[in-house]
Specification:
54% helix, globular, hpI Integrase, Chain A, 312 residues, mainly alpha, 3-stranded antiparallel beta sheet, DNA polymerase, domain 1, 3 strands, single chain
Length: 312
């Protein structure tokens, strides 16, 4: 009898043990990815699948995974190829973890064909779009805080969670230049200059809460609440961001479009792909090249000669 078979004889029958395995998997995922948002997404999908299946992981079969992956989810909409792929990837990752732990012998996702992913074209706002967005944010305590967050997102190119998680201790001032320290995707840490307009907007919103970076505890959030106001969370900011887009007459979008915008505006300002790659903390220049090409589109240099040939 192999070591794996010996372990599998002890596979838990108590549902609590499976739940503990789920918690361990999510903890490992967060440690490896460094993204709380990714972990929350995985948690929602796994809870949804096993709640619907009403089975323990060792009882699940491939057809059940197939039906769930292609079925209507929590949103009530038919899933896109991206969503289907994400569901299968999430569940498959969990089963690979269970196999390593000796709790199951096989992965029901292995029998499934992954959908061909057709990514949506990347979008980024123009400078005029950003001015329009900033123009509808009210000059109120929560509005000034939201303005500071938008400016920080656009000027630094950081992800939403990286900005929302900034603390007083992450900001340092050297002469007239402010710097911020952040934890990026995959646990990557960095220290960058904090653009002056973002820094001044942060100081203004902290002033609304009678706070200053110099006197705050290092662990205190930069996005303090004013009198009678609650602090901002990632979900709260997302809701308010969507509201601002509606008021500005702009199409609904996720906050990540501001990262696309940061890249687009840098390229429009003449920065090289290499500069933008370093700015975005991309893992390779190839990733940035694809990213930027989707934002910029491909210029057609031959259409004029063809049009001339056909008399158009």
């Amino acid at each position: 009898m192999t070591t794996m078979e010996t372990k599998l004889l002890a596979a838990p029958t108590d549902p609590t043990a499976w739940q503990n395995a789920l918690y361990a998997f999510l903890a490992e995922k967060e440690r490896r990815s460094g993204s709380r948002r990714t972990v929350e997404g995985y948690s929602r999908m796994l809870q949804h699948f096993f709640g619907r299946a009403a089975k323990t992981p060792d009882q699940v079969k491939s057809p059940e995974v197939l039906a769930w992956a292609h079925g209507v989810g929590l949103s009530g909409r038919t899933p896109s190829s991206v969503t289907i792929g994400a569901r299968i990837a999430c569940l498959s990752s969990f089963y690979r973890f269970l196999i390593r732990m000796g709790m199951v012998a096989s992965n029901p996702c292995d029998a499934l064909e992954r959908p061909r992913i057709v990514p949506n074209p990347a979008r980024g706002y123009t400078g005029e779009d950003v001015r329009k967005l900033l123009g509808v944010i009210p000059d109120t305590v929560p509005g000034r805080r939201d303005r500071a967050i938008v400016l920080t997102l656009v000027l630094t190119g950081r992800r939403r969670s990286e900005v929302i998680n900034l603390r007083a201790g992450d900001i340092t001032l050297e002469g007239e230049t402010a710097y911020y320290t952040y934890r990026g995707k995959g646990g990557k840490r960095g220290r960058r200059e904090l653009p002056r307009p973002a820094y001044e907007a942060i100081l203004a919103t902290l002033s609304d809460a009678s706070k200053s970076i110099a006197t705050m505890q290092p662990t205190e959030s930069l996005w303090q609440a004013g009198a009678g106001e609650r602090g901002v969370t990632s979900a709260t900011f997302y809701t308010r961001f969507r509201r601002y887009l509606a008021v500005a007459g702009m199409a609904p979008s996720g906050v990540h479009i501001l990262r696309h915008t940061a890249a687009k505006l840098r390229r429009d300002a003449g920065e090289s792909i290499e500069d933008v790659s370093a700015f975005l903390d991309h893992s390779s220049l190839a990733v940035t090249t694809i990213y930027v090409r989707r934002l910029e589109g491909v210029q057609d240099t031959g259409w004029a000669r063809v049009a001339e040939a056909i008399g158009a």
